[in-house]
Amino acid sequence: MKKVLLPVDDSKGAxxxxxxxxxxxxxxxxxxxxxxxxxxxxxxxxxxxxxxDPELATLREQLEASGMMDDxxxxxxxxxxxHKKFLQRSRFSRIRTLTRFGDVAEEVIKAAAEEKVDMIIIxxxxxxxxxxxxxxxxxxxxxxxxxxxxxxx
Length: 153
Known about the structure:
- 27% of the residues are buried.
- 50% of the residues lie in helices and 20% in strands.
- By secondary structure, the chain is α/β, with parallel strands linked by helices.
């Protein structure tokens, strides 16, 4: 395995995916690990999946104009850095970080294709009720990705 994509945030599921990567590949670490954090405007909500691309672009422009985008990117960098340090302590050395903006599942799938990863390891920590109300990003990625997907809990 040459390249693994780890979509991360500050959730229990993200920590589980990083730990799964270490358990599975720790003795033979991949050539590179790509840590991805997707900035999701408005947070997780019932309406998130209903935002069109033009509306998303407008929202991004408004966030940038207000300075809130800088805050979101700074928080993303802190999250990515924490996961990167955890991997480095486990002897992973070739780690890149990437931040994207938009629908989480779509951006994970796009990044996997663009970066030509061999596998996606994604966490899932939502309750059944949360999955019913807000959707299941991990399941959507698993159903739509062109590469193998491991869902860690």
